[in-house]
Amino acid sequence: RRVRGFQTFQHYFKQINLSVVSKMPNIKLQSSDGEIFDVDIAIAKQSGTISTMLEDLAMDEEDDDPVPLPNVSTMILKKVITWCKHHKDDPPKPEDEENMEKRTDDIDSWDQDFLKVDQGTLFELILAANYLDIKGLLEVTCKTVANMIKGKKAEEIRKAFNIKNDFTPEEEEQIRKENEWCEDP
Predict the structure, then answer these.
(1) CA 175 to CA 161: how far, in whole Å?
(2) DSSP of 118-182, one letter per residue?
(3) What three-state secondary structure class fits 67?
(4) Cα–Cα distances in angstroms (integers) from residue 4 to residues 9, 62, 65, 100, 103, in the given order
(5) What's the pLDDT at 179?
(6) Which conformational region is residue 108 in: left (phi greater than 0), alpha (psi within -120 to 50 degrees), or beta?
(7) Which residues contact 67 (CB under 8 A, 6 or more apart)?
């Protein structure tokens, strides 16, 4: 009898759990291209910008008006939503970031694969993460760029990022002298 009672309990629990999961509140996000995305509100609130908009505009899940994101294209918003869904259960980052060690070798494998994109997309993701105030995404995208330039000479970095050298040889020499302390011996 106990087993049967437990099975009945499990059955009802699954029913309740499924009804709760199916009724998770959603919010509409509108990209700069006008495309609208229906997103779980908990996922959207990973963005400090969206959380603040919802609070300031007194919006909730019953509102049908989309939250406009004029600085984020459809392609980038899709990637941001994908990243946020994957990281929805991550613990919050500690507030005291100034005392944290800054490392670039701690990017998990999912994020490494996710960020194997062209430079333009990577930089758009950085801009979107900054605009949307998604600290984890901003951190991992910036670490990816840091890893791209780590150990490279200035000329190699210029070439990799298509940056024009607008220093005169004299200015370049002066900068080199001022920064000798940080060069490898």
Answers:
(1) 20
(2) -HHHHHHHHHHHHHHT-HHHHHHHHHHHHHHHTT--HHHHHHHHT------HHHHHHHHHHTGGG
(3) strand
(4) 9, 40, 48, 53, 54
(5) 83
(6) beta
(7) 27, 28, 29, 30, 44, 50, 53, 54, 59
- pLDDT above 70 coverage of the chain, percent: 77
What pTM value is reported for the model?
0.75
Query: Model confidence over 27-67: pLDDT tens digits?
Result: 999 999 999 999 999 999 999 999 998 887 766 556 678 99
C-alpha to C-alpha distance for 49 and 53, rounded to whole angstroms? 6
Eight-state DSSP code of residue 89: T
What backbone phi and psi angles, to 5 degrees, belong to 120? Answer: -60, -45
By three-state DSSP, how is residue 24 classified? coil
pLDDT (tens digit per residue) in 83-110: 999 999 888 766 656 556 677 677 899 9
Contact 28, 53 (CB under 8 A): no
- Helix (H/G/I), strand (E/B), else coil: 114: helix
What's at 128, amino acid-wise? A
Residue 92 Cα distances to 40, 42, 95, 99, angstroms: 18, 13, 9, 16
